[in-house]
Amino acid sequence: LKSAGIITLLTDFGVSDPYVGIMKGVILSINPTARIIDITHRVRHGHITEAAFCLADSYHFFPKATTHVVVVDPGVGGKRRPILIATSDYAFVGPDNGLFEPVFQNYAIFEVFHLTKPEYFLPDMSGTFHGRDIFAPVSSHLSLGIAPSKMGPRIDDPVRLKLPRYDLTDDTLIGQVIRVDHFGNLITSLRREEINQFLGEASPVINIAGVILKKIHRTYAEVPESEMLALFDSVGRLEIAVNMGRAGDRLQSVSGNIRGASVVVSKGTTLSK
Amino acid sequence: LKSAGIITLLTDFGVSDPYVGIMKGVILSINPTARIIDITHRVRHGHITEAAFCLADSYHFFPKATTHVVVVDPGVGGKRRPILIATSDYAFVGPDNGLFEPVFQNYAIFEVFHLTKPEYFLPDMSGTFHGRDIFAPVSSHLSLGIAPSKMGPRIDDPVRLKLPRYDLTDDTLIGQVIRVDHFGNLITSLRREEINQFLGEASPVINIAGVILKKIHRTYAEVPESEMLALFDSVGRLEIAVNMGRAGDRLQSVSGNIRGASVVVSKGTTLSK
Amino acid sequence: LKSAGIITLLTDFGVSDPYVGIMKGVILSINPTARIIDITHRVRHGHITEAAFCLADSYHFFPKATTHVVVVDPGVGGKRRPILIATSDYAFVGPDNGLFEPVFQNYAIFEVFHLTKPEYFLPDMSGTFHGRDIFAPVSSHLSLGIAPSKMGPRIDDPVRLKLPRYDLTDDTLIGQVIRVDHFGNLITSLRREEINQFLGEASPVINIAGVILKKIHRTYAEVPESEMLALFDSVGRLEIAVNMGRAGDRLQSVSGNIRGASVVVSKGTTLSK
């Protein structure tokens, strides 16, 4: 897979410090023609699961051969390994702490390399900023065409992450709120496929923090302003929203922390086709 | 107008979610050489007027043939049309909800096209994220040289927006606070031209939330630290500021919501030339 | 020094307004091939010292011949001079208010030019936004190969800044908290070199807002979760952190404003090698 020269960055570094800019400087110092795109730097500090979902929802919209650098790295400087993952479509670079679980789930074939070759790192290694010292320079060397296999030995035991998805019983399909987005929409772990399969020809009954919703809409504008609704979001996840409002704020006041809260789907009346 | 390959993004998507990064991935997947510049993603949620002013103050600083993508889209997935506007200098892409009013006001000649050709969209359309599904891919196809007229039929009835500007009586010129910027400066709808014309040779008396200012300065440093002043901002709008301080915070505590508040200019003593 | 065509931006403009996007539009209008990288736009409003430290920690990670534009400019429109600094490695552009002190300290040889030639500015100058009117266009003309000496006369008296560094007595080495980063880590003015030299073979005793720390660690993970520690950050500054927590929030509640607070290093027991 020949590099596209495009490198994305997804971190919990925020945008108030020079950290992200420094990573870009390191990348351009190695490959001045690399093109760098920010996915987001506002993952909550140390939230590996949040970063994994963010990666899952975005990486496949980029050109083939893009390198995705993901740095949410609470174990920086400790024993966790720095890794590179090569698939048929993309390369991924970051710490081996479960961040890349969606990649492992989506690809039948992938190779994982333990980044051990200091010639592809910055010369002066810190114990606190491997985004700068390892992941940025490795991604940039990759973009110049260095083969992943030159960067370190292949490994077969990358850290796997249990991502919240769904629990299925005869009567209920239970998921979780995985993120509250900028608009206050609740993004859940339940996907269109499993919901449709679970419901069959029954109508949905969705319970989120005690609020009951009986329909899955297609767009916000299908309900009156300020009304809560369920719909599938732009990547097929069940989303709870308020038309022109903030579902997160409203449910937060009912239930305390809405992040991680359960969303329970059960079967209503059977729909006639 | 041959595309410059430069695409700007102006949205209310914030920077915490992967949404903006995803739009960039879609653009680069179609035209890997496109250059993408963020104007801002922090327009307040759904505030079409705020976005329109933001566009008005920025689009003309870009190279000719830049494509400006603006997505503040409370009606996403509903009946509002996706449109493309071509002028002699720039192209504009976004929802037909009034966002582009400044373009309609500034250009005598422009063409508006209703984006109807799915071959220029992403194959899987969502009901909630047309920034990704329509506006990003259309802007990228444009940057490859596809003619606007290929993207859909020309229309003559784009949605127009009543932008706050000014009300003029014999004794007063009344405008509105349209934005509070990062520095706490109040940006108003009144422009240098109409103020100068209104005042003639009279000195200004400006009333903002009960505070009276009797001079229009050229720079912040012309008044002592912490003192409030009026001046023309960098695009010629009347601005209320505090030297080294935050006018918005100070007036907010006096008047409640300062956004949308009136600013009243009346005539003081006649100046001798 | 031939320009690399890379221009970085470091400002206190925030990311809610179109100001940064406008600067990029101006740069690209002059040199459409310039590559623009954000360092940060979240320096606190008017904090020249904070911007100077931010510049000090980041500029040298960029390719040689990068132009660094720094705009924290409380005196905009007043008497402070716009300047350009040329060193053997980089160019720097911004207001003459002390921002570039780290450059003056790090380079034995540098040239400073007073930007006086309006042909390299925007035609319509404002009194409030020289980032757009002077610094962006000058940086872009530089990237096209215009010699610094053409931009204005050389000057020998740029404004110097007293940056907090350290006070040394026989018994103590005293520094200051210069920044609280996105993770709540306290970044101090004390550097590894002077601490090691001061301590010699003694163990460290660090006092920050009454909390005593007796070791300087290499990584966060060397202490249990939620425990406070001292370590050297990724550019060699003494940093006070909490493993998986926020040192700034914890010490803020003890001491009020932790920014600018003293950090006192004294000598503990002598270590045997």
What does this structure look like?
The structure is a homotrimer of 273-residue chains. Chain A is of the alpha+beta class and 273 residues long. The first copy, chain A, contains 6 helices and 16 strands. Chain A has helices at 19-30, 48-58, 101-106, 130-143, 192-199, 247-255, and strands at residues 6-11, 35-40, 67-71, 82-86, 91-95, 111-114, 154-155, 167-168, 172-180, 186-191, 202-208, 211-213, 216-217, 228-232, 237-242, 262-270. In chain A, strands 8, 9, 10, 11, 12, 13, 14, 15 and 16 form a 9-stranded mixed beta sheet that branches. A 7-stranded mixed beta sheet of chain A has the order 2-1-3-5-4-6-7, with helices on both faces. In chain A, β8 (167-168) and β9 form a beta hairpin. In chain A, α1 runs parallel beside α4. The longest helix of chain A has 14 residues, at 130-143. The radius of gyration of chain A is 21 Å and the shape is elongated. Chain A starts with 5 loop residues before the first strand and ends with a strand. Chain A binds chain B through residues 4, 6, 8, 10, 15, 35, 37-42, 54, 57-58, 61-63, 66, 179, 181-183, 217-222, 231-235, 239, 244, and chain B through 13-22, 24-26, 28-29, 32, 36, 45-46, 74-78, 126-129, 132-133.
